[in-house]
Specification:
single chain, 523 residues, alpha+beta, Beta-Lactamase, five-stranded mixed sheet, 16 strands, rod-shaped, EC 2.7.7.65, transmembrane helix, nucleotidyltransferase
């Protein structure tokens, strides 16, 4: 059933129901009013004949009395009329309905108003009165219902043309809109020029269709761009030389590119990322730091990994993947992206370069630049722990003749051999051994309480004086002049001051005969 027909039927039903109720109410009101009016009219007619009836009763004139009651009974409103005089029936006419709605008029003596001589009794014809009142009321009700039906029809037609018909046309236009393909959707047009609610609905609908088309085009462009970016990202992800992986909130690897699998093996998915490294606990610390810190979203750190028994240095760049939604989901996972570079060659080169910068290329001992810092740290530790610290300036005796006689290669052998012997002596002690320059060595030594610096100096002199083999046929021997500065709990002394004093003490020994040591204690 169409909307217009339903609306018309509803309007007609409501109109008929209301008009019927009003007609029923009006029928009852009009019926009561007609009865009351007829009764009043009957009473008035009886009162009009009161005077004539009084004369007939006074004179006992039956003919006059008959004329009066017949005249009353001939009226459609009166069913029965009678006149009594002195309690005797004088005249009557009509059919007595024996109802209680009779009208009784007292007849008086024409010459004495105080004397009652008879009664004029009139009975209204209630059936006629009711039939007449019902006929009038029914005609009024029918007229009212017909008028209501006419109004309902007119309203239904008006609603059809002004509301339901445009709505039906609008609905048909909606059905023709293909929402599955917004790009070809057409605007709604039902030739409606009104500026009422329907007109506003059409404008809003067309605005919505236009916005939907615009958004569809934008999303189409965005989707194409996104597809292109995904292709590029996938190519970059697959072809990247760096290992790329995604770490779940529980630390497992969920995604890994070929370069990552090449670093750690093909079967790395769902493995714990930290277990891929030599010290997993350090990896856990860095991951927890990144997950629970609000100050930064990425960190980079180097870790060591073992592969086939060889140590590898891997540089890891961790980035926390943040939730871009305005309201984060409670079940969103705390994901971390990691990019891994194998920096083993670079790290080994750095270590080699640093070692070469800090050590003497001939003996492998620390050079003067790096050794001074280590000496100062050792002195500070000894002062803090209240330990005895000794600084030895060692200068080889009879070294220059070896260079002059056997050449510099032989001198290099002597220097390497002497440095190895000194390292062996201080192997179990906290010591800093420096090649100070030429044939000079600087030794910082912290001895425990059970050892004497004198005993160590004797052992050192004896070790240095042992023969040094140059080749299968040649051996040489050197001595040493050693200036030893010993200090205990002195926080005011600095390494460079102690070096100056040890150097001066060593030169005093050379001037006094060489190949010996001398100890000077500073308190």
């Amino acid at each position: 059933m169409s909307l217009s027909l339903r609306i018309s039927l509803i309007i007609g039903f409501i109109a008929i129901a209301i008009s019927s109720a009003v007609a029923f109410l009006h029928f009852n009101i009009q019926l009561d009013h007609s009865k009351e009016q007829s009764e009043n009219l009957v009473r008035q007619m009886a009162q009009n004949d009161q005077g004539t009836s009084s004369i007939a009763a006074y004179l006992l004139d039956t003919e006059l009395a008959d004329e009066i009651v017949e005249g009353l009974a001939n009226n459609d409103l009166i069913a029965f009329a009678s006149i009594t005089a002195h309690s005797e029936q004088l005249a009557l006419a009509g059919i007595n309905p024996r109802s209680q709605n009779n009208v009784v008029v007292s007849l008086k003596n024409p010459f004495d108003e105080a004397e009652q001589i008879g009664l004029l009794t009139v009975y209204p014809d209630l059936r006629f009165i009711q039939a007449q009142a019902s006929s009038n009321s029914i005609q009024t009700a029918i007229t009212l219902i017909a008028l209501s039906a006419s109004i309902a029809i007119i309203v239904g037609i008006f609603v059809h043309f002004k509301l339901t018909s445009p709505l039906r046309s609008l609905s048909e236009e909606f059905e023709s809109v293909d929402t599955s393909n917004p790009e070809v959707m057409s605007l709604v047009d039902i030739n409606y020029s009104g500026h009422d609610e329907i007109g506003k609905l059409i404008v809003k609908t067309n605005n919505l269709i236009s916005a939907l088309q615009s958004r569809f085009r934008s999303e189409k462009i965005l989707r194409q761009t996104n597809d292109e970016l995904q292709k590029r990202f996938r190519l970059l992800f697959e072809q990247a030389t760096a290992g790329i992986a995604l770490i779940s909130g529980t630390g497992e690897i969920t995604i890994a590119n070929p370069a990552f699998k090449e670093l750690f093996g093909k079967h790395v998915l769902l493995k714990a990322f930290a277990d891929l490294f030599h010290e997993p606990q350090k990896v856990h610390i860095e991951l927890d730091k990144l997950r629970h810190s609000d100050g930064f979203s990425q960190i980079d750190v180097d870790f060591v990994s073992m592969k086939e028994g060889k140590k590898r240095y891997l540089h890891c760049l961790f980035s926390r993947i943040l939730d871009s939604r305005e309201v984060a989901r409670e079940d969103s996972e705390n994901l971390i992206e990691v990019i891994v570079y194998d920096v083993t060659k670079r790290r080994e080169q750095e270590l080699k370069t640093r070692y070469e910068a800090d050590h003497d290329s001939l003996t492998g001992l620390m050079n003067r630049r790096s050794g001074l810092g280590s000496l100062q740290l050792q002195l500070d530790r000894a002062v803090k722990k209240q330990q005895l610290f000794s600084l030895m300036m060692i200068d080889l005796d009879r070294f220059k003749p070896i260079n002059d006689t056997y050449g510099h290669d032989a001198g290099d052998i002597v220097l390497r051999t002497i440095s190895s012997r000194i390292k062996e002596l201080v192997n179990e002690q906290e010591a800093t051994l420096i090649r100070w320059g030429g044939d000079e060595f600087l030794l910082g030594l912290t001895l425990d309480g059970n050892k004497s610096i004198t005993d160590f100096a004797e052992s050192l002199m004896q070790s240095i004086q042992e023969d040094v083999r140059i080749d299968t046929k040649t051996s040489v021997q050197v001595g040493a002049s050693i200036g030893i500065i010993r200090t205990l709990y002195s926080e005011s002394e600095k390494v460079d001051t102690l070096i100056t004093k040890a150097d001066a003490l060593m030169y005093n020994i050379k001037e006094s005969g060489r190949n010996q040591y001398q100890i000077s204690t500073i308190f």
